Amino acid sequence: MTAISGLVSPNDVAQAAELRVLTSVALTSALDELAPVFENATGNKVTIGYSLIADVRKRILDGETADVIILSRPVMDELQKQDKFAANSLVNVAGTPVSVAARASAPKPDISSVDAFKHTLLTAQSIVYADPAKGGASGVYFARVLDRLGIAEQMKGKTILVPGAQAAEVVARGEAPVRNWSVRCPENSRA
Amino acid sequence: MTVFTAGIGAGSKSPEPAKALIKFLTGPEAASRFKAKGFEPG
Q1: What is this model's ipTM?
Q2: Which of B16, B19, B25, B40 is the best mutation test for A, with the most CBs of A within 10 A?
Q3: Which is higher by pLDDT, A114 or A3?
Q4: Which candidate from A7, A24, A138 shows the least CB-CB separation from B27?
């Protein structure tokens, strides 16, 4: 067992445990890297179940539980009201901005202002983002952005919705025309 | 910005290790790794 300086002391963990974590797919890249570090430091085993926030929320409301649950703040606050967590255990872990990506061969999208961003979207041949109906955080957020920009209807004809966090992969694979914009969370930055 | 929040499940049989995991995820080592992945820590 290796102690992580200033983070986890032997007193924090009396004996090894098997921890089950339920969380959003948005955190996959970070938690897949962090979990082994924690395991090596404490001897505990961490098993992480990833899914869309809406799916995890429903499962928790339906009675599923886990040792640690990590979801977006509004959903966690809602679940807290249903007494789904230990008292006073909610802590913010990380925030993720919603980003715009284009294929490597396409010009860098101009998002320097609201007007520039709106123009970029309106002149793109197509865009791809997570289907908000599936409950992914970036998809729900971006659908609201289109509404606020007043271009939701105009964008419908050239929008590709993906079920999860595959937006960047769709652009990278070239399954959409070259001048594509992918709206995505930063963990999918391979486009 | 979507803020992700951790909580200990009400039915957890390992609340102390769960607390230690959350402490780790909000600590400096996790912060640097979150940043490297494009997240804003805490």
Answers
A1: 0.97
A2: B25
A3: A114
A4: A7
